[in-house]
Structure formats: structure tokens, C-alpha cells
Amino acid sequence: MTVKVARRFLRRERRPLISDGLEGVIAARTVLSDVDGAKGRLVIRGYAVEDLAGRARYEDAAHLLFDGFFEDAPSDLAPALGAARVRAFGEVAALDEGLARRDAVEAMRALLARLPDGDDLPTALLLVAAPAVFTPAVLRVAKGESPVAPDPALSHAADVLRMTRGTPATDAEAAALDAYLVTVCDHGLNASTFAARVVASTRAGLTSAVLAGLSALKGPLHGGAPGPVIEMLDAIGTPANARPWLERALARGDRLMGFGHRIYRVRDPRADALKTAVRKLASASSALPGRLAFAEAVETAALQILREHKPDRPLDTNVEFYTALLLEALGLPPSSFTCVFAMGRVAGWLAHAREQLAGGRLIRPQSVYVGPEARAAA
Ligand code: CMC
Predict the structure, then answer these.
(1) Number of domains present in the structure of the chain
(2) How far apart are CA 289 and CA 279, in angstroms?
(3) Active-site annotation, residues
């Protein structure tokens, strides 16, 4: 039975309609973040995302999300998170070259899966530290270099960049990565957060919930888009080629990466927060202003073509477009972009998992059977 036939059947039977992709379904109450798709607003625990990004360190955003969900969370998470990075580094010994040469998310997921489950603050901090420590190690070992141990005295963002490159980051670079990690730290009931909440609702433990989140994030329709954004920009090459290239992509039935969103019907506010961070970084770089101007030209062409292609469906720039530019400017390779997304979103997954444990029931929706009638077994 096709979905259309199943819908007709359900209407006739006066049973609730299936919501494809659970669109419009409300499955949780949360104090963590509010995504207003019509107005293009994202509020994280009472703060507009554009006010948090560029002002708060990632440690502060994680504290904001954890507040009330871990009773023993200190007001400054930075020292405990630094110590957790050192603990996470102990797991890097399990990383061999074969694993490091796999897809970076798969390698990071394998290391994460080694961590024990638990529901307490030390487990949560280890899980926040893990993507930040494992990603640089995976990138370096894949290139035949030794992993660099964390420096617990540095800020989380500065340490990530130092562990990746082996040399200290500038303050401007650390601030740009902080702006990114804060911008993506939470975003309502997105696919990965929902996956994390489902697993948390079974009381499996925080590591299991984070693994579920990471697995959902990996897909190109969610957190896997920024790598393909760079591929798209590189393939377009010049502003004059933007329109013909994008038209050909749509004619093939491809989706333009970095555009469209399930909830936002206007521009994703995170795109602007990140564009501001890229602009700040561009003022201290010689190559970035040209790349930014080119990306803006591609964005303008893409928005125009999407309007012509789908006049009834507002498709605007999403977070991934400027994520790609920002992470590229920080010298991070496209293969690591989804891992870096996970570095930011992990605090959101953990806070949602704790919120689900505190007040939620087991998440167990129903399906409608549209297969053959029961028959006698032969
Ligand atoms: N390029 C071209 N067409 C698009 C795009 C796009 N980027 N996004 C949606 N459409 C079309 C789609 O083909 C469909 O057309 P039709 O009805 O003729 O089949 C229509 O718009 C509705 O799309 P949908 O798949 O029903 O919408 P959705 O809410 O399920 O999809 C989305 C949301 C993000 C998966 C989608 O917009 C997309 O695939 N975008 C490209 C990938 C991307 O940038 N992902 C990052 C998302 S933001 C990070 C996050 O918060 O997760």
C-alpha cells in the first residue's frame, strides 16, 4: 500500500493521520531551546542565538544548557572540561591508522562507543570532551602524525584548534570556533536530538544517547551538509558559473546543500550569526574576504534559482552554508565538519537526555500496519 492509499484508508477508518517525518508533531516539552520557524528566531534558554554567539565561550553555553540538569555542575565548567579532555585523550591509544583513515565520523563514533555509559556529570563532561579530543586525533593519525595531548588550561575552542594543528590558535580563531560551537549547541527537537531523547527515554545511559545523536547527525540531510557545500563552491569556481551550475544541479534532481529547512520558512538565524563570525575572521585574513564575496555571490544565485524552481516552498539559507566557510577558514578539512558539528551539539544532546530522564516517559509511537491480512501459516 502506498502512503497515499494508506492515508485514504486511515481517513476512512477515522484513525489519526500519519505525519510523514513527524512534521508538526510535538513530542517533548523543553526548557532548552525554542525554534520559531516563521519568524526565523532561535532562543537558547532565554537568549537569542545571535546574542550568545560571539559573546559566550562554549563552556558557558554548555553550562547554560546543563544548569538544573546536573545538580553538581560548577558555575565555571572550564576546569572540569579541561580535565575531562585529558581523560578522553586516554582513549586515543585505541586509534590505529586503519580506523583513522575511515570516514572521520565513523572513526570518532568507534572511539566514543568505548566510553562507559552513565548518567552523572563526570560522564557528561567526558562526552562533551570526547568529540573535541577524538576529532583532532583522527585527523592527525590519518595523515600519519601523532595525536597532540590536550592542554586543560586552554579554552575548549583554543585547545581543539591547537590539538588539530599542533600550534596555538590566535584569539580571533578561537573566538570564531567558539561562535560556531555556541551557535549549534542546541536546536529544538532536530533529528539527532530526537534520536538522543528516544534512547535516553529507555534509560540506556548518556553515552548510548550521544551515540544515537551522532549517528543521526552524520546524514547529509542533517549534519553532513557543510562538506558538500565546499564541494559545491569548488565545483562552481567563479561567480559567473554559479547560475548555470546550480540550474544543472536542480535539473538533475539534486538538492542544493546549505539551503532549505524543515522548520524555518525564512532565513535560518544561525546563518547570520555565523556570517558575522566569518566577517570578523575575514578582517584578520588576506584570503578570506575574496572567498566570502564569492560565497555570497553563489548564495544570491542559489536563492534566486530556488525561488524560481519552487515558488510555493520558501527555501532559504540554512546554518550549513556559513558553517562551511567558517570551518574552512579555520583550516579544518571538510571531512571533519560533521565531527565539529557534534563537538557543539553534544551539550544539547546531553541536556535533552537529562531532561527526558527527569520528566519524560518512554518514547514509543505507533505504526499503522498496511501489509497483507493475517493468513494461516502453510
Ligand atoms: N535544494 C533543492 N530543493 C529542495 C531543497 C534544497 N536544498 N530543500 C528542499 N527542497 C525541495 C524538495 O526537493 C521538495 O520538493 P518536492 O516536494 O518537489 O519533492 C520540497 O523542497 C520540500 O522538501 P522536503 O524534503 O519535504 O523538506 P524537508 O523539510 O524534509 O527537508 C531539508 C529539509 C533540510 C532536509 C532539505 O531542505 C534539504 O535536503 N536541504 C539540503 C541539505 C541541507 O542543507 N541540510 C542541512 C540542514 S540544516 C542543519 C540542521 O539543522 O539539521
Answers:
(1) 2
(2) 8
(3) 261, 320
Q: Identify whether residues 161 and 298 lie together within a single domain.
A: no
Ligand 1 centroid to residue 368 C-alpha, Å: 26
Q: Are residues 231 and 151 in the same domain?
A: no
Judged against a pLDDT cut of 60, whether residue 10 lies above it is answered with no
Q: Could you tell me if 258 and 117 lie in one domain?
A: no
- Running DSSP on this structure, what letter comes out for residue 168? P
71: helix, coil or strand?
A: coil
Q: What is the pLDDT of residues 276-298, one digit of tens each?
A: 999 999 887 778 889 999 999 99
For 35-77, write each residue's pLDDT tens digit: 999 999 999 999 999 999 989 999 999 999 999 999 889 999 9
Residue 302 makes CB contacts below 8 A (sequence gap 6+) with 242, 246, 256, 258, 259, 317
- Answer yes or no: is 367 within a domain: no
For the domain that residue 290 is a member of, what is the CATH number? Answer: 1.10.230.10
Do residue 75 and residue 161 come from a single domain? yes
Which of 44, 247, 310 gets mutated to test ligand 1 (max ligand atoms within 8 A of its CB)? 310
- For the CA atoms of 14, 18, 19, 25, the dihedral, rounded to the nearest 10 degrees, stands at 70
Same domain, 208 and 233: no
Whole-angstrom Cα distance, residue 285 to residue 274? 16
Cβ 135 vs Cβ 343: under 8 Å: yes
What residues make up the domain containing 219?
Answer: 50-175+187-223+346-359
Nearest CA residue ID for atom 15, ligand 1? 310
Return the bridge partners of 85, or none. none
Phi, psi dihedrals of residue 358, rounded to the nearest 5°: -70, -40
Do residues 264 and 355 share a domain?
no
Q: Write out residues with Cβ below 6 Å of ligand 1.
A: 21, 187, 190, 221-222, 225, 255-262, 310, 313, 315, 318-320
pLDDT value of residue 8: 60
